[in-house]
Amino acid sequence: MNLKMIGACLIALLTFAVTPAYSEDEGQRASTGGAQTLDDILARQKGLEVDESFRRENLGSFDNAQPASSSLGTLGGFSSSDIYRGIRYSESDIKVSNNGHAAEILVQDGGMSWLLTREGNMRAYAAYGIGGIIIALCAFYFTRGRMTIEGGPSGQTIERFKSFERFGHWCLAGSFIMLACTGLLLLFGRSVIIPIFGHEANSAIATFSIWVHNNIAWVFMASLVAIFVMWVAHNIPSKLDLVWFAKGGGIVGHGHPSAKKFNGGQKLIFWMTIVLGASVSMSGLSLLFPFEMPMFAKTFAMINTVLPAMGLPTELLPHEEMQLAHLWHAIVAITMIIAIIAHIYIGSVGMEGAFDAMGDGQVDLEWARQHHDLWVEEEQAKGAPIRQVGDVR
Amino acid sequence: MKTMLAAFAFTIAVSFGAYFVLSEMGFSSAEVQSAPSVRLD
Ligand code: HEM
Fold it and tell me: What pLDDT score was predicted for residue A5?
């Protein structure tokens, strides 16, 4: 066989393979006189990333001005296309009579991906996530039943939370539940409320929802700070938590792993509430005061310094900041809602005796010994009073 | 339970309070976004 022929073919193939792509691009670009090429258009149609710099930077210049006597002389170096490109990429110095923030940005195309994400993945994940956790909890309830106090209640109680702690918890819970409901009404308005109840109804519901959402948020933020201050000392992770998790918290497995005031699972709920609560509050404030508190460009810059491979954009238009804040706000909120549904289950129907801790603050001594043995020991060492059920308090 | 109801009542009261305080401070989007040439009411 002609080895030389095969070698020549391979070399030829390799040459084609390693021919730098840009030269092809440049060639094509030259053939369109610097305008976009068929490849650019096809790539855009497929939703691929297209380097737009050849358009963004092609904005005309005084240096290119034709002599006044020529046919295009009166344009002064800036053709209509140049001017449109300047507007399209927010590169022009625009003057507007509206004093609103970002009013001088006339074209911004991030809105489309924002809309598609909200109408697509976001709603789907929210529905699956929230539906999934509710189905899982129902399945748990109907197969394993309510977690009961082994041996029944003792008839004696000990104080678990003081009234100011319960007040803080219920401010947080009340505001969160209202925020969650109104937020979901806003997210699902178009896809669920309009088709079933019509536009008029959705308009009224959305107007009510946004009013409640905007104003009740302050209570959520304030009580989040209060909860953090009151309970952080009891929520520092410790080795005991690992043992607690290894034993499945006594929920999945059997027996009651030791715990102080809060067990591993509760610490997880606490830190989830604090961290995601802070993040949802920050993005919420950024939405509440449009364009005044952009935070994504700065956050992305910080992420890029730690993880340069991410290559996140650090220059964002004001609208893009708002779009990202809006998407992030919903993602964090939906995650919290899913986790909190599980918390509400276990604090109410899921576990006998748990609600009392936040109800009147007194829990059954036997419940406390089974779930928080070390805490009970500490409290008793401090001389915490034990009450008989039925005592007048 | 009394504490829980008090917290809910407090939550509602603060929400109305926030609405009035923010309106008084001229924080509404309409006011922030419009030029002096726009008549709002
Ligand atoms: C109807 C709704 C709710 C019920 C019935 C409920 C019930 C409870 C109960 C009984 C406890 C005390 C558990 C113990 O004795 O150790 C507790 C603690 C706590 N709750 Fe709630 N809660 C509700 C909603 C919420 C919401 C919406 C949030 C946050 C957004 C929240 C955050 C917390 C946190 C951080 C703790 C301390 C950690 C823990 O025990 O998991 N709760 N809740």
Answer: 61
Same domain for A272 and A362? yes
A268/A357 same-domain check:
yes
Q: Ligand 1 centroid vs A193 CA: distance in angstroms?
A: 30
Intervals of chain B under pLDDT 70: none
Q: How many helices (H) and strands (E) does chain B have?
A: 2, 0
Q: Is residue A181 part of a domain?
A: no
Residue A88 forms part of a structural domain:
yes
Per the structure block, which two tokens stand in for A277?
A: 């609560």
According to DSSP, the β-strands at A156-159 and A362-364 are antiparallel
Q: What is the DSSP string of A180-196?
A: HHHHHHHHHIIIIIHHH
Is A185 a domain residue? no
Tens digits of residue pLDDT in A14-44: 544 444 444 455 667 778 877 888 888 999 8
Q: Domain check: are A150 and A55 in the same one?
A: no
Q: Which two tokens stand for residue A115?
A: 């809309």
Q: Is the CB of A261 under 6 A from ligand 1?
A: no
Which chain B residues touch A359 with a CB distance below 8 Å? 1, 4
Q: How far is the CA of A248 from the centre of ligand 1 (A)?
A: 20
Domain range spanning residue A329? 110-161+236-388
Query: Which of A358, A364, A376 has most ligand 1 atoms within 8 Å of its beta carbon, as the pocket-test mutant?
Result: A358
Q: Look at residue A6 and tell me if it is in a domain.
A: no
Contact status, residue A319 vs residue A108, Cβ threshold 8 Å:
yes
Instruction: Give this prediction's pTM.
Output: 0.85
Can you tell me the ipTM of this complex? Answer: 0.88
